[in-house]
Design brief:
By secondary structure, this protein is α/β, with parallel strands linked by helices. The protein has two domains: about 30-150 and about 290-355, Rossmann fold; about 155-285 and about 370-385, 3-Layer(aba) Sandwich (Rossmann fold). Helices cover about 45% and strands about 15% of the residues. The strands form four sheets. A seven-stranded mixed β-sheet has the order 7-6-8-9-10-13-14, with helices on both faces. β4, α6 (about 135-140) and β5 form a beta-alpha-beta unit. α4 (about 85-100) runs parallel beside α5. The longest helix has 20 residues, at about 50-65. The relative contact order is 0.12.
Length: about 400
């Protein structure tokens, strides 16, 4: 072979070796066009604090997936719109993602009211939709394409908190309760469970109020709970209103023995905004950063390194878990066919950051949840005992203690 032939062979071999040595994410780009995932979140508005962490969860999932070779050997790409937390806008933007952007897969929305509004649309277009859902009513309509291994389930969360109270010595339990709920599907989702447990535990309901968000002031609600000596203040409300409740309670000298917030207390902004006044508040959760799974530890590390958080915020974990569930369906089906993904999820166990699950006919895993309490600015699991990372502190210490 002459010199020219030798150089030609050598260059060809080097090129082949270089191709083999390419990073897996780059190989995915070479192999095909991106798989697009689309949807909307409440990126601005009163729900933005949690939504930004969901978005970061989506983005980190996409980053990690691409570094690992993509999905079905193709890179993933996100299309995320801002629906401002308005359910009608969430529906419009998801339909835009489907019909205009031609996304291959859907991303779940936030908050629950938006998810509940989007689920019928996903059903109409025959596309798999993995999200927090809009509590049990949204999963009880016979939808075949909606799933959640980590749902936001008011009915389950209420059960967990009251089972925690039931585990306490009878004399330590609250005797009276004030229920204060935002007037929307989230606020109404737990009503039956909350009333049932008040009767079961012998607690007298002294206040039961629904209010329209946002609150201008929480003084009237707190005054009513204080005047009627509610030993348990049980609130279902979003972050801005929840902050007002704490500040009003302190200002009016109301210090309930037990203070529960259904949504807001696990946000990183809770301790930053309220400081020590945010301590000793309880919240029931589906997801927590102290679960003993390797990916949870990984996400805790990412949150600390990138955003300076001591642990991964709850909604960052949510935002990672939903596309991860969808990923399991796609990889199991070995296809982007929506029916094949749906059928795989309905017939196989999936393993995600919070455990292994099988879905029932509603698209839900078996019921589960945890109770956390804010202690020294961090959320600690206090129930169930086999998952606890700290002992519950009760009755609530006086303000400033």
């Amino acid at each position: 072979m002459n010199k020219k032939g030798i150089w030609t062979v050598t260059i060809t071999i080097c090129a082949l070796l270089a191709f083999v040595a390419l990073p897996s994410a780059l190989l995915a780009q070479v192999k095909g066009k991106p798989i697009r995932l689309g949807g909307s979140l409440a990126i601005t508005g009163p729900l933005a604090d949690n939504a930004k962490w969901i978005k970061r969860g989506y983005e980190y999932w996409a980053e990690k997936t691409n570094k690992s070779g993509g999905l079905l050997g193709r890179p993933v790409e996100l299309v995320i719109y801002d629906d401002e937390g308005k359910p009608d806008k969430a529906v419009q933007l998801m339909e835009k993602a489907i019909t205009v952007d031609k996304v291959d897969l859907l991303l779940g929305g936030y908050a629950g009211a938006s998810c509940a509004a989007q689920m019928p649309l996903a059903e109409r277009y025959g596309m798999v939709y993995v999200s927090m859902g809009g509590h049990m009513t949204s999963f009880s309509q016979g939808f075949k394409y909606s799933f959640s291994a980590t749902p936001m389930m008011g009915e389950w969360l209420g059960e967990a908190f009251f089972k925690f109270l039931e585990s306490l010595p009878p004399n330590d339990r609250p005797k009276t309760v004030a229920y204060i709920r935002v007037n929307n599907p989230i606020g109404r989702s737990g009503q039956a469970v909350e009333r049932k447990w008040a009767e079961k535990l012998g607690m007298k309901i002294v206040v039961e109020e629904y209010y329209d968000s946002p609150l201008a002031s929480a003084d009237a609600l707190i005054s009513k709970a204080k005047e009627r000596n509610a030993e348990l203040l049980y609130c279902t409300q979003f972050f801005p209103d929840a902050v007002l409740m704490v500040r009003s309670a302190k200002a009016l000298g109301y210090n309930p023995k037990f203070f529960q917030q259904s949504i807001a207390a696990t946000s990183p902004a809770w301790a930053k905004t309220l400081g020590p006044d945010g301590n000793y508040v309880y919240q029931s959760v589906i997801m927590t950063n102290s679960l003993p799974f390797p990916e949870i530890a990984e996400l805790n590390k990412v949150a600390k390194e990138r955003w300076g958080e001591p642990d991964a915020p709850e909604y960052f974990l949510f935002g990672y878990s939903w596309p991860e569930t969808l990923q399991r369906g796609v990889e199991g089906a070995k296809s982007l066919s929506q029916d094949a993904i749906r059928d795989y999820l309905r017939t196989h166990e999936v393993s995600i950051i919070s455990g292994k699950f099988r879905f029932d006919d509603k698209g839900l895993p078996p019921e589960y949840s945890y109770v956390v309490q804010v202690q020294e600015g961090q959320t600690k699991v206090v129930y169930p005992s086999d998952r606890s990372t700290a002992k519950a502190i009760y009755p609530k210490p006086a303000w400033g203690k």
